[in-house]
Design brief:
By secondary structure, this protein is mostly helical. The protein is built from two helices and no strands.
Length: 54
């Protein structure tokens, strides 16, 4: 299984975000799922898809 980039989610490149979401989505580990959710939120924020009322 590929490893996560050695940095925090906001510092991932768009490519790293997409790879992490694609490779780890559906993982049974709760920590990994939380990381994927963070990646999805960051991707949405960068692309203007996230609502700012969270």
């Amino acid at each position: 299984m590929p490893t996560w980039p050695n940095k925090t989610v906001p510092n991932f490149t768009n490519e790293e975000l997409a790879d992490a979401i694609e490779q780890h989505q559906g993982d049974p580990d709760p920590v990994t799922r939380q990381m994927v959710q963070g990646c999805v939120r960051e991707w949405e924020r960068r692309h203007g898809l996230a609502s700012d009322d969270t």
